[in-house]
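Input (structure):
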């Protein structure tokens, strides 16, 4: 027999699933600590109806962890830079980070008299996807069968700035002999020659980071480092 009461009974409301308002994506954030804004990575999150959002953070300078940090003490890198709370840029999440990465490339290119690069959002998205995969799979290798040039960098225990990454590649200049178009014996110089490759006109870069490691990827179009050709 049909139960009329069952059909009329209202369904109890369900609590909506809560999501972090600041993503735990390995990007640098800044946390107010001892009257200063310090670089950190978000490593945990919880939510309660009483306290709201609370994060666990790992400070990058001393590797100390703090739990139960409220959102009013946390700024994204872009927000902290805009508010003038930080001066060091450590990622690509803001226009300032992108500008620093591009400017660092063009500084090395200016030294050898080749045209400046422009930033490509498409290449940046392409590079970001590969950086995320390398970090997730704990690998460090070039993307197979790519149509673009590619430079990689990785760091553990210390966060690099965009300019520091490019300068790691650029300092290979000392190991490159232009006359022979070869690296010094036992040295690597291909990152440098891609940075200054004359025919390259566009660059886009990505960064993936967790509390232990970070991976940077830059892709270049048109690609460089053709065998038998000098970079400029």
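Output (sequence):
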């Amino acid at each position: 027999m049909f139960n009329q009461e069952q059909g009329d009974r209202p369904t109890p409301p369900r609590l909506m699933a809560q999501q972090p308002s600041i993503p735990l994506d390995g990007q640098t954030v800044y946390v107010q600590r001892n009257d200063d804004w310090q670089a950190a990575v978000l490593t945990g999150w919880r939510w309660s109806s009483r306290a709201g959002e609370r994060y666990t953070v790992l400070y990058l300078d001393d590797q100390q962890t703090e739990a139960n940090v409220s959102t009013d003490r946390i700024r994204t890198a872009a927000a902290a830079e805009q508010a003038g709370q930080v001066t060091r840029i450590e990622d690509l999440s803001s226009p300032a980070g992108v500008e620093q990465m591009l400017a660092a490339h063009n500084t090395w290119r200016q030294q050898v008299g080749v045209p400046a690069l422009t930033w490509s959002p498409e290449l940046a998205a392409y590079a970001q996807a590969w950086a995320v995969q390398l970090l997730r799979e704990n690998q460090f290798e070039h993307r197979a069968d790519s149509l673009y040039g590619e430079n990689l960098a990785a760091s553990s225990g210390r966060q690099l700035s965009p300019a520091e990454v490019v300068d790691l590649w650029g300092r290979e200049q000392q190991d490159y002999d232009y006359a022979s178009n070869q690296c010094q014996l036992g040295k690597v110089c291909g990152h440098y020659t891609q940075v200054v490759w004359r025919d390259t006109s566009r660059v886009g870069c990505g960064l993936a980071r967790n509390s232990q490691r970070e991976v940077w990827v830059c892709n270049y179009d048109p690609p460089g480092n053709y065998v038998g050709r000098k970079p400029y």
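Notes: The longest helix spans residues 95-111. The chain has two domains: 1-88, 95-221.
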